[in-house]
Amino acid sequence: MDEQMTISLPLRKLAEQIGDEVTEDMGKIAFYFHVCTALAEAGHARISKDDLAQVTLIAFQRRQDRFPKVPILNAVGVYAQE
Predict the structure, then answer these.
(1) Phi-psi category of 43—alpha, beta or left, where left has phi over 0 and alpha has psi -120 to 50?
(2) What's residue 81's pLDDT?
């Protein structure tokens, strides 16, 4: 996985911080909103789609590390199917 990650170290650290801030009851829309808001607040409002995808992936993996048995809720508040 790490060999595929191409984002800068500061952006990676921000992604990890975002993942640490996510709560276990946050749904998909709230999760993505939190990622985008945190990026904008940190001055990264205009990043590439690839960087956004990598930041989102890192943040989600960090969330899963913290809450491994809690699936993320889908848009209507129902646990998403894996």
Answers:
(1) left
(2) 54
Q: Are the CB atoms for 82 and 71 separated by under 8 Å?
A: yes
- Please report the DSSP string for the chain in residue order: -GGG--S-HHHHHHHHHHHHH--TT-BHHHHHHHHHHHHHHTT-SS--HHHHHHHHHHHHHHHHHHSTT-PPB-TTSSBPP-
The structure tokens listed for 49 are 């789609």
> For residue 67, how many C-alpha atoms fall within 13 Å in the half-sphere facing its CB?
15
pLDDT tier at 74, thresholds 50, 70, 90: low
